[in-house]
Amino acid sequence: MICSQKNDSFTVDDTTKGNGALTYPVGLITLDEVIAAGGYTYNFPSNYNYYLYTGSSYWTMSPSSFDVGYAGGWFVGDAGDVYSGTVHNTFGVRPVVSLESDVQLSGSGTINDPWIVS
Predict the structure, then answer these.
(1) Residue 31 contacts by C-beta under 8 Å, 6 or more apart in sequence?
(2) Is residue 117 a part of any domain in this protein?
(3) Could you tell me if residue 85 is inside a domain?
(4) I want to staple 31 with a disulfide (CB 3.0 to 4.6 A). Which of 38, 74, 98, 107 is the partner?
(5) Report field, pTM of the whole predicted structure over 0.90
């Protein structure tokens, strides 16, 4: 998707495609990335074995609802499962970095065999 507002298209150095306002290209994880990694919604049992499980709750950048007076977002609970909650809750965040397509990865992404970027 192409952002029609250049001031909302955040980039590090590229002022042709974006605003060049970022110092570091780090964002927040999205709900679909958590689910793809093995996170479950609250309708399924918790998953303590995927690499995004931390034992602490943290927000994703994915919205879940908007209503008069509050906004809702998706978060990963302390048991590793995914919930929707109002954004006034104080949880942590989980940064992510997008890699170029030619980056080489090794490892399986588990706690005992983490990914190594080269």
Answers:
(1) 60, 62, 74, 82
(2) no
(3) yes
(4) 74
(5) no
Structural domain boundaries enclosing 52: 26-97
pLDDT in tens, the chain (118 residues): 566 777 777 778 888 878 888 877 778 899 998 988 888 776 666 777 888 888 899 999 999 998 878 889 999 988 888 888 888 888 988 888 777 788 899 998 888 998 898 8
- Is residue 5 domain-resident? no
